[in-house]
Design brief:
transferase, binds 3-methyl-2-oxobutanoic acid, binds sodium ion, 2 domains, 40% helix, Pantoate_hydroxy_MeTrfase, elongated
């Protein structure tokens, strides 16, 4: 498949073809995301923190860690547009600092676009990044980087004021130049309405079927994540069972001596040479 561009995403939105986005964290998961011609976007999500690095939340992730993993993803990613999350704290200090860090994400991390969490309050940063040629994907609704301020991971935009805030934030970010927006954990009515009001593609996660596309964390799709399973997660495979079974079978084989097989899984020496050696 030809490389997916921002223009491709707009065309998919226009034709009401749901956009597909999956997270990746390293070279093998990037190959997985690129293995189907139906995938449009690979996201190096900062869920990297929990899923891959064992941190309790995304706020622990550094920009150096993100770049290290993003580079690995970029070596395996083929046709999908490669977007990477800017980690917590890497775009909050000043516009200059945000640009410096976003440039690193592109030059060192191989990202083709960056994703930033937040509403109107980050629109100046989104505008400047866009102006210097770094495409920005916005992220509204539930903002995991602010789990402490939000007192946990909860559905957003369920009140009249809350819904208005999600919509006006998304509109402000579109005006600031964002090429797309992730909408996380909001009522499906709001997911659909925001999608109708915006002219850029919306990518939903827990936002119902009415958005321009969907994103899920790869480990949730594969059933390898054993932590909390959100309402919006569907496990499309059960790799954890397959994986743990492989480990168990291998360990059993070693223990009982059935692995390795001397005839097919071992090297042999010429008997005459072996005699000489002895
Ligand atoms: O970090 C992440 O994985 C994300 C997506 C799930 C939207 O931001
Ligand atoms: Na994220």
């Amino acid at each position: 498949r030809k490389k997916v561009t921002i223009q491709t995403l707009h065309a998919l939105r226009q034709s009401k073809t749901p956009i597909t986005m999956i997270t990746a964290y390293d070279y093998p998961t990037a190959l997985a995301c690129s293995s189907s011609t139906l995938t449009d976007i690979t996201l190096v999500g900062d869920s990297l923190a929990q899923v891959c690095l064992g941190y309790p939340s995304t706020t622990k992730l550094t920009i150096d860690e993100m770049i290290h993993h993003s580079r690995a993803v970029s070596r395996g990613n083929t046709h999908p547009l490669l977007v990477a999350d800017m980690p917590f704290g890497s775009y909050h200090v000043s516009v200059e600092d945000a640009i410096r860090n976003a440039v690193r994400m592109v030059r060192e991390g191989g990202a083709e676009a960056v994703k930033l969490e937040g509403g109107k309050e980050i629109s100046d940063i989104v505008r400047r990044l866009t102006e210097v040629g770094i495409p920005v994907m916005a992220h509204v609704g539930l903002l995991p980087q602010r789990h402490a301020a939000l007192s946990g991971y909860r559905v957003q935009g369920r009140s009249v004021d809350g819904a208005q805030k999600v919509l006006s934030d998304a509109l402000a970010l579109q005006r600031a130049g964002a090429f797309s927006v992730v909408v996380e954990a909001v009522p499906q009515e709001l997911g659909r309405y925001a999608t109708e009001r915006l002219s850029i593609p919306t990518i939903g996660i827990g936002a119902g079927p009415g958005t321009s596309g969907q994103v899920l964390v790869l480990d949730d799709i594969m059933g390898t994540w054993s932590g909390h399973k959100a309402k919006f997660v569907r496990r499309f495979a059960n790799l954890k069972e397959v994986r743990d079974n492989g480990v168990q079978k291998y360990a059993e084989g070693v223990r009982d001596g059935s692995f390795p097989d001397p005839a097919t899984e071992s090297y042999s020496m010429d008997p005459e040479l072996w005699e000489k050696f002895l």
